[in-house]
Design a protein that fits this description.
Helices cover 96% and strands 0% of the residues. It has 155 residues and is mainly α. The N and C termini lie far apart (191 Å). Keywords: Membrane, Transmembrane, Transmembrane helix.
């Protein structure tokens, strides 16, 4: 009976030791589970933060892209309009210069022709009046006078 009692005690101790080991293993499993949950939560939060940052960066890139496209597009259109306006102004200036040159040339030719004509008319008129007056009124021989003057100057 003593042997049976000792065996029962030993079996009881073994059961207690096994129970303690099971409890320790259970505690380790719970701790590991808690660590896994904490790591998953931390990783999840980090992933969410990273995804939010990626979304924010994406929105900023889209906004910057739209602004760049709109601003650069507007600047390009404005520069194009300015170039067209400058081109039109240059064409108008060239046309005005050509018209001015043509008008000035025509006016210049007309003025020269008119002035030369007036000078010729006046000179011929004066010569005619002088010659007619000298010949008719005073009876002077013009040809003889010219020959006399020429001879006196040459000699």
């Amino acid at each position: 009976m003593i042997v049976v009692g000792v065996v029962v005690v030993v079996v009881g101790v073994v059961v207690v030791v096994v129970g303690v080991v099971v409890v320790v293993v259970g505690v380790v499993v719970v701790v590991v589970g808690v660590v896994v949950v904490v790591v998953e939560v931390v990783v999840g939060v980090v992933l969410v933060v990273v995804e939010v940052v990626v979304v924010i960066v994406g929105v900023v890139v889209v906004v910057v892209g739209v602004v760049v496209v709109v601003v650069v597009g507007v600047v390009v259109v404005v520069v194009g309009v300015v170039v067209v306006v400058v081109g039109v102004v240059v064409v108008v200036v060239v046309v005005v210069r050509v018209v001015v040159v043509v008008v000035v040339g025509i006016v210049g030719v007309v003025v020269v022709v008119v002035v030369v004509g007036v000078v010729v008319v006046v000179v011929v008129g004066v010569v005619e009046v002088v010659v007619v007056r000298l010949v008719v009124v005073y009876g002077i021989d013009i040809v003889g006078l010219v020959i006399t003057v020429f001879n006196s100057v040459v000699v």
